[in-house]
Amino acid sequence: MSPTPGCGAFEKPASHGPENKMDSEKSVKRNPHPDFDRVQASRPDWHSEAIWSFTKTKKPDWKLGDGANDGGQSIMKQHIQIDPYEAGRPAVFNYKLLISAIVPRPIGFVSTISADGKSTNLAPFSYTQMINHDPPLFIIGFSGGFSNAKDTLANLSATKECTINIISEHFLEAANATSINAPHGVSEWALSGLTPAKCTDVKCSRVKEAVFSVEGALMSTQEFESKATPGKKTGVLAIVEGTKFWVREDALNEERNNVDPAVLKPMSRLGGIMYGRTIEGCEIPRPDYQEKIKRGEADNLIRERVEGQ
Question: Which residue has the higher pLDDT, 225 or 16?
Fold first, then answer.
């Protein structure tokens, strides 16, 4: 159940044994530590005292036209161009590059049930995102094609339903455990120790420990083919409509339109085997063009293009 090149799933194929997935994991080499337990033991303990807080922005007096807040240091650095299809470049290189650069990524903790109701599945996907609010729409990316569908995709395709749960600090280890390379038919729920909770519109469970969960109905899917290896199916995109939201009461405001990050404590995905915490934020109002013009803050900055374009 670990992600294969080109996708954000951490899951096992429905029709393949765990050995195949471990072979894939070894080829990806996402874990850079030969002895992770030793590395883990050398690190500081989890900062339990860290709580959500606000800071100012780095440059509170920033004004239109000021550019980056680093004094020009970033434009002194050189860039390297990479062609994802250059000769000899393995697809896994693109995978590792992208998951380390497109960060932090939200993790969709997806629960499904088989069409016959005999088996349940729970897996994290870091190729998950909200794409619309009316209707509420979400996307989930799966590795491989329909012919080699993993448990979540196989169940979602058959039942047209799922739940998407947001992973918080208080069940990170349990959520990560669901990426284990267990064989098809073994439910990750028991292995994780997490608690299933009933839903209203879907038969599959939501995660009771989750501060925020979505009941979802499958709208459509799109399968992708490799450009490097024509004919090889490398991924599937699923679009899911949210039909019900579940929010822990202590995280929800009175208007029921905002979730408190201090309660949600969301975890995100970084590169390799890294996760990220969200414990600090800053606020910046969106500027109003006419107001800036009125104040003269955009003088000499109004043009159709800038030098160098």
Answer: 225
